[in-house]
Structure formats: C-alpha cells, structure tokens
Amino acid sequence: MKPLKNTLIALALILTTSLSAQDKMANNLDNSSIALQGYSAVSYLDLGLAQIGNKSYKSEYKKVAYYFTSAEQKSTFDKNPAKYMPQYGGFCAFGTYAGAKFRVDPNKFIVENGKYYLYLNNVELDAKQLWLAEKNHSQLKGIADKNWVKLSKTHN
C-alpha cells in the first residue's frame, strides 16, 4: 500500500499545480454543456471504443447534451440513458479515488462490469495506468464511490 500512498501524494502535487481550472459541477462538461467532450457514451460502453460523436445525432438527458456516431446509437441511448452515464460524472476515476475531480482524456477509459470509467492523462501523469497498477480494483472503486457522494455535491 506504500507505493499507492506515494502515488497519491505525487498525484495531488501534480494535479494541484497543473489543473487549476477544474469544472465546478457534478458532471464533467465543457462550456457548451456537451458531455464526454463530444465522445459517444454508447461507443464506450457497447463497443469498448472512444469514438467522437456527431452533433447530427444528439440527445439530451438531464439538461446535458450527448453526441453519437449514428442514429442507431442515439436510439439505443434514448431507450435507457441512465445505463450510459459515465462513472463519477465523467471525472477521472483515479482522481475521485484520491478525493478530487479532474478532467479526463476521453481516450483513456476502462469498461468493467457494465460501467465505464474515464481517466486523466497528461505529460506528467497517466491515471489509467495508476489505476491498472493497483491489484485491488474493487477497493479503489469502493473508496472512489464513497468520495463521489461528497464530491458530486461540491464545487471545487
């Protein structure tokens, strides 16, 4: 567990200095209220792919816009939008585990047990690799889930 503690300290330092402009909402959105930076939630979950959506295939769910790659994907989403919501509001899963909300690289994700998790990636840190390096993912998710209850209500 000591390597994880050192990793968390490094994560906190890097993120504190390099990501000062964090989103202040429970959903990781850009200024135009488009979820997932325009990537398709259906592509993540059903195909295991990061695919940029097209504004021609747009749906709204809880006042948030989602883009898809086709009319078929849009229809799939519209039938059960809650199924396609990203974990932790689309914020970095490892950051949530560490107790903070951070923007993600939409190409860094994991699909597991019918859910998808997104991760921060920049020149200093690949949070997906940190997550994968830990053996006990259920422990990481348990802590992240507890942290998300509080984080989803805060404006950091």
How would you portray this structure in words?
- The protein has about 160 residues and is an alpha+beta fold.
- The protein folds into two domains: about 1-25 and about 85-155, no CATH class; about 30-85, no CATH class.
- The chain is about 40% helix and about 15% strand.
- The protein has six helices and four strands.
- The protein has a two-stranded antiparallel sheet. A two-stranded antiparallel ribbon has the order 3-4.
- The two termini are about 25 Å apart.
Tell me the helix content.
Answer: 25-40%
Oligomer: single chain
Q: Count the DSSP helices.
A: 6
Give the strand order, joined by hyphens, for the main sheet. Answer: 1-2
How many E strands? 4
Please state the average pLDDT score: 84
User: Radius of gyration, rounded?
Assistant: 15 Å
How much strand content do the residues show?
Answer: 15-25%
Poorly predicted parts: 13-24
Give me the strand/helix succession.
HHEEHHEEHH
The assigned structural class equals alpha+beta
**N- and C-termini, Cα separation:** 27 Å
List keywords for this structure.
single chain, two-stranded antiparallel sheet, alpha+beta, globular, 17% strand, 6 helices, 156 residues, 4 strands, 2 domains, two-stranded antiparallel ribbon
